[in-house]
Write a structure and sequence with these properties.
The structure is a homodimer of 412-residue chains. With 412 residues, chain A is an alpha/beta fold. The first copy, chain A, is built from 12 helices and 18 strands. In chain A, the strands form 4 sheets. Chain A has an 8-stranded mixed beta sheet with strand order 3-6-2-1-9-11-12-10, with helices on both faces. The first copy, chain A, has a 6-stranded antiparallel beta sheet with strand order 14-15-13-16-18-17. Chain A has a two-stranded antiparallel ribbon with strand order 4-5. Chains A, B: InterPro entries: AceGlu_kinase-like_sf, ACT-like_dom_sf, ACT_Aspartokinase, Asp/Glu/Uridylate_kinase, Asp_kin_monofn, Asp_kinase, Aspartate_kinase_CS.
């Protein structure tokens, strides 16, 4: 009898009615013959409310005490979901992170899972119980309650699936799976049946948002089969797994995009060994995430362009100004109201001309590419915000993503 | 350097402002040179809100999951109070019940503390930290989160004081201490400087309500000095401790009373060995708390009268009806709208005539005594509800309780 790990986010357990719906999904899986471990987040806005309380008490965020505070959110969810299961006649038991044996680093606010002691979970599963485990939290070697940071519940679910050698880790969300692109932008966007871990990492990092990249990374490292599916509609979702070598595989799987991008250019840097290092270390220390970086040399001087989230622009400008004396650059320019559009697909690596086709499509639409970045499985372009929708639709059409998806639905 | 345990109830930590006030009280104690352990309850109405959520999810109360749910309430409080302390520059750390080493029975909803492993608390105290411990909760030997039931936070505080051999356990409340009687009923009621454990047990059980009887019992067994005091006004409270042999000690310490009492009389029972046993076992199984019991024999038949809380009347009548066939009694009568008024004092045991004086006072007021019960340190009477205030005032005057209290204030 196989083990299935099911993860339910805060929206899925946001009210007593939704908790009962989740209980039904768990019972359905149990009745199909699986041993079930459900991993849940805090209810709806609970975390926000707890953070608000903390803000009222102290301006400073004390990380250990924030973990102590926030970890109560999932503890409430597991208790309520277990009550719902038991009220429906299911033998179930709730477990906090420390009770489930989730051992983490001794680091508060953003700890990584180091080990999972599975003995307690296994003995309950052997008794035929459904387990309801608090996501997002664990315990350090010193007996401290820790939290895993953003996407923590996804990571808990995948890590438990790895430790228990589960058949699959089902991530329940409010969408049906991973799409070729955002259906709100491209009406013909269609659900993918399968994406590889690497493709999903690109989708996740680029803002597809159905599963946290840390969890995908974990799944990749431990070969956990993940399925992203809807908690509202009973339809197959998108499986995330090892890339299989298949002929006629589609080259481009989908299109990811990200709004509110700003391109910053530092002009006229002297050419030194540590110039790049100083610039990007300073920005990293300020918490600014730099995405695409381009360096070019003009007349014995160096220009550096990079893209950031527009919300980080102020920090970026201040940081550069602080370092101006050391860096000795001429000027800083920036361009706001940009966006990033990327095509993703494992097949790209063996298919030359994919990037060229993308540039052709954009050129035909009269869209100027401001920056380009490529990896083995993606091509990213920075363009103006206002041309984003046109670009995404044109690329979606150009790579025939809607047609491919329809084929796969027919053969399902 | 002595250890002081301070307990703050739900009202005291009911808002961010109150939490900061509690933090100030803790810091004041620390500055006086004490090592401080603060024990806190869940904020204000948190427990009620969690119970409401549980009710929405399941009609049945699953005790293990209720403990999982309710124990989050104190966890929120300890995190917030610790943040407040740290924001004021105090080195503090929060501890859940299991982190503080509170080991309980393997029983949910109403577990008793079996042991406290003090090593973790002691090592933090040695580092100069203020400890903020979650009241009301502990962990069983199986690693389950348990709760201690009503008055649990008082019990946690006293148990920690016993385990750490603290100088005193301060119970902070919204009154200044233990009074000769309820000041809302008798305007001349005054605060007592000292009551013995035994006296306090009678006061607590009879409804004085400032500290839970279980905690007093614990303090008595482990010789913990307890002080009940106001969290709002900085005045000495009431010390609860070992009775000291003092001449001229006041015979009666105070007057406790309880409203909504009903007297039930079962008439015409055959005289059998197990009649009493059957009646009161059945009632106990229904959760009916019987207080005063009087048995008398009339013409080869037995009558039993007992007092209960009026809210238990329906259960009592149904239970008796169910047992009628076995018990073979003639009829059941009851009298509602009664109350119980008791005088309490350790000196009573060596002072004959105390009960007589009480009856005289009631007789002079024209108040009929319906039931009487006595112990070494108290005399309880059941009278009509409408005469309660008159009775309490008259007894308070008759035993000169207001005068005695004024003397003790002068000598303070």
């Amino acid at each position: 009898m196989g083990i299935v790990v099911q993860k339910f986010g805060g929206t899925s357990v946001g009210s007593p009615e939704r908790i009962h719906h989740v209980a039904d999904l768990i019972i359905n899986e149990y009745k199909r013959g699986s041993k079930v471990v459900a991993v849940v987040s805090a209810m709806g806005h609970t975390t926000d409310e707890l953070v608000h309380l903390a803000n009222c008490v102290s301006e400073v965020k004390y990380k250990r005490e924030m973990d102590m505070l926030l970890s109560t959110g999932e503890q409430v969810s597991i208790a309520l979901l277990t009550m719902a299961l038991k009220s429906k006649g299911m033998d179930a038991i709730s477990l906090t992170g420390w009770q489930a044996g989730i051992e983490t680093e001794s680091f508060h606010g953003n700890a990584r899972i180091e080990n999972i002691r599975t003995d307690r979970m296994k003995s309950y599963l052997d008794e035929g119980k459904v387990l309801v485990v608090a996501g997002f939290q664990g315990m350090s070697a010193e007996g401290e309650i820790t939290t895993l940071g953003r996407g923590g519940s996804d990571t808990t679910a995948v890590a438990i699936a790895a430790a228990l050698e589960a058949d699959v880790c089902d991530i329940y969300t409010d969408v049906q799976g991973v799409y070729t692109t955002d259906p709100r932008v491209v009406s013909t966007a269609s659900k993918l049946d399968f994406v590889s871990y690497e493709e999903m990492l690109e989708f996740a990092n680029l803002g597809a948002g159905v599963i946290h990249p840390r969890a995908v990374e974990f799944a990749k490292n431990y070969h956990v089969k993940v399925s992203v599916r809807s908690s509202m509609e009973s339809v197959p979702g998108t499986v995330i797994g090892e890339e299989e070598v298949v002929e006629n595989q589609s080259v481009v799987k989908g299109i990811a995009f990200e709004e509110d991008v700003t391109k910053v250019t530092v002009k006229g840097l002297p050419i030194t060994v540590d110039g790049l290092s100083v610039v990007f270390s300073s920005l990293a220390n300020k918490g600014v995430n730099v995405d695409i970086i381009i360096q070019h040399i003009v007349q014995e001087k160096m220009n550096i362009s990079f893209s950031i989230k527009t919300e980080d622009l102020q920090d970026t400008l201040v940081t550069l100004e602080d370092e101006k004396h050391q860096l000795q650059f001429d000027s800083v320019q920036y361009e706001k109201d940009l966006c990033k559009v990327s095509i993703v697909g494992s097949g790209m690596v063996s298919n030359p001309g994919v990037a060229a086709l993308m540039f052709n499509i954009l050129a035909e639409e009269g869209i100027l590419v401001k920056m380009v970045s490529t990896s083995e499985i993606k091509v990213s372009t920075v363009i103006t915000q206002e041309s984003m929708k046109k670009a995404v639709c044109a690329i979606h059409d150009g790579f025939r993503l809607e047609a491919k998806a329809k084929d796969s639905v027919e053969t399902m």
